[in-house]
Amino acid sequence: MQVMTLLGSPRPEGNTAHVLGWVEAALANAGHTVDRHWISDYAVSGCQECQSCKEGTVDLCSVFDDGIALLRTIVKADMLIIAAPVFCWGFPGPLKTLLDRMYCLADDMDGGGDYTTQLAGKPMALVVTAGGPEKDNADLLVKAYEAMVAYMKAVPAGALMVANCVGPQSLDAAVRARAETFGRQLAEITC
Q1: The domain that contains 115 carries what CATH number?
Q2: CB atoms < 10 A from the CB of 118, how many?
Q3: How far apart are CA 176 and CA 16, in angstroms?
Q4: Lower Cβ count inside 10 Å, N or C end of the chain?
Q5: For the whole prediction, is pTM greater than 0.85?
Q6: If we measure between CA atoms, which residue out of 149, 145, 91, 83 comes closest to residue 122?
Q7: Contact (Cβ atoms closer than 8 angstroms) between residue 66 and residue 35
Q8: Looking at the 3D structure of the chain, how many domains does it have?
């Protein structure tokens, strides 16, 4: 299985990167190919809500930037794992910008239930780290993830939340074991 991981943290070696690395290693050890993309390596502009993606006048999106390449990679992957720290009860800005652009992957014009998406049937997972508690903090990202999975008609593959992180040094053996277990669970999913 080809797994795309999307690191939404502005820090390439921070808490989220470490936890995601343990998940990725478990997937790789199970024989899957893992392709990490760090959002800060890309220039992604926001959705312009021009509806060109729904009118069929463009391939994917009318905003021609690095977001197009990321969207194509997301579509080609067998599984998508979104990894992010909590920023003001939500996703960090650059990652949120790309998630907004994923609107182009659905042909839903009127908000009705009869539509298709380019991620239908694909597993999506979430890895979240937070400097504070899980309740009323990291759990809000899980709600956003669940809404995205439902809208994309994807398969919810689960969420791993690691709260009360005070730096990579705070990520102990118990956190690593949880991340590796989550990665092994994801590795068992068939597409």
Answers
A1: 3.40.50.360
A2: 19
A3: 12
A4: C
A5: yes
A6: 149
A7: no
A8: 1
Nearest to 48 by CA among 31, 32, 33, 65: 65
One-letter amino acid identity for 99? L
Residue 129 and residue 19: Cα distance in Å, rounded? 8
Q: Give the domain extent around 112.
A: 2-187
Using the 8-state DSSP alphabet, how is residue 118 labeled?
Answer: T
Q: In whole angstroms, what is the distance from residue 73 CA to residue 85 CA?
A: 22
Which three-class secondary structure state does DSSP give residue 44?
Answer: coil
Amino acid at 45: S
State which amino acid sits at residue 146.
E
Query: Identity (one letter) of the amino acid at 55?
Result: E
Q: pLDDT tens digits, the chain, 191 residues: what are they?
A: 999 999 999 999 999 999 999 999 999 999 999 999 999 999 999 999 888 888 878 888 899 999 999 999 999 999 999 999 999 888 999 999 999 999 999 987 666 678 899 999 999 999 999 998 888 888 888 999 999 999 999 999 999 999 999 889 989 999 999 999 999 999 999 76
Give the tokens for residue 129: 């780290």
Strand pairing report for 79-85 and 2-7: parallel
